[in-house]
């Protein structure tokens, strides 16, 4: 019997020991894709030209992945999707391009495929259809989005379980409330003014905590863009 979460594929397969290991893997994916495209160019053309000038470097890919990762977040914000769906979509997107190259798969399609899968993972997909969610995106082929779902799942080996920091943040909020905010218990012997001051203090702390949680969520999403 596995011990949660230490035996989960989230930690076994998708947590790298260092950024250098992650960069090495991405460089390998980039070189592999370039070799495949070089073979294709040789088969379709006998002209002598510098093929490398037509292909992307690992740095080029990193720039594109980061850019469209931000577009994914902006789209989720525009559609007011839940944080958990936004986070999961971003994770799926970055996991996919840890194992695939943008020279082989269009990130403009993969960002929407990742969003679609993320909504289904949390059953938010029951409240949306692809046409309703993506219908106002100019030039987007919704059938391509749907067709790439299996491609993304296969690339990720169907490792769709994601440890979400929102649960940890919510636990932190509850502990904070229990061990700190509730210390400010209203004393029955206090007069009305003291009662009001104490209640105001509690409300201020609750408001401050909500802002801290929101900033923490934003920080988590920002980290994803640096990978």
Automatic annotation (TrEMBL):
Keywords: Cyclin. It comes from the Eukaryota. CDD domains: CYCLIN_CCNH_rpt1 (cd20524). Residues 70-154 form the Cyclin-like domain. It holds the Pfam family Cyclin_N. Belongs to the cyclin family. This is Cyclin-like domain-containing protein.
